[in-house]
Amino acid sequence: MEEDRTSFNLTVESARLETALKDRRRYSKTEEGDKDRRNFDWIACKDFTVEEGKRQLREYISTWDIQPCWLYSLDFLCSTEEEEHSIFCHYRARFSTPTPQRPIQGTVSVYFVVAVSKVMPDTLPVEVVFIIESNRLVHTPGRTTFREKWLADVIESKALLRREVDL
Fold it and tell me: What highest taxon heads this organism's lineage (predicted)?
């Protein structure tokens, strides 16, 4: 798509998401995966583009129950391929709560991988998973209810670490 693995080192989070998608295909039933994706109308594989992926992720993030003080930027990081099976598009949403008094504050990243199948019927929707920075749990839209507390916890952990290191 725009970049490949050689020009961008995947984050630990992105690599974990890619592995989770590959494992899911290996060990789960197709019907179950299709049912999960119906909770949000993801685009069909045949219609997917990097920009459409960004648009859909923004739309999905807008369904989260978070305070309006959380602002974010969404970036496409890279795409990787799994031989003939899938293309994985990696995105990062970086959240912060800037204020006029403190415009530069801590950030927390949420990493997304959108899997575009090259072997299933191209009318099937893409698969999407995400992970919060410094966490291990892989979340699936439709199975997970996003919690604002996850963002706040990462910001707080970073602030505590910063205070400890500054001593």
Answer: Eukaryota
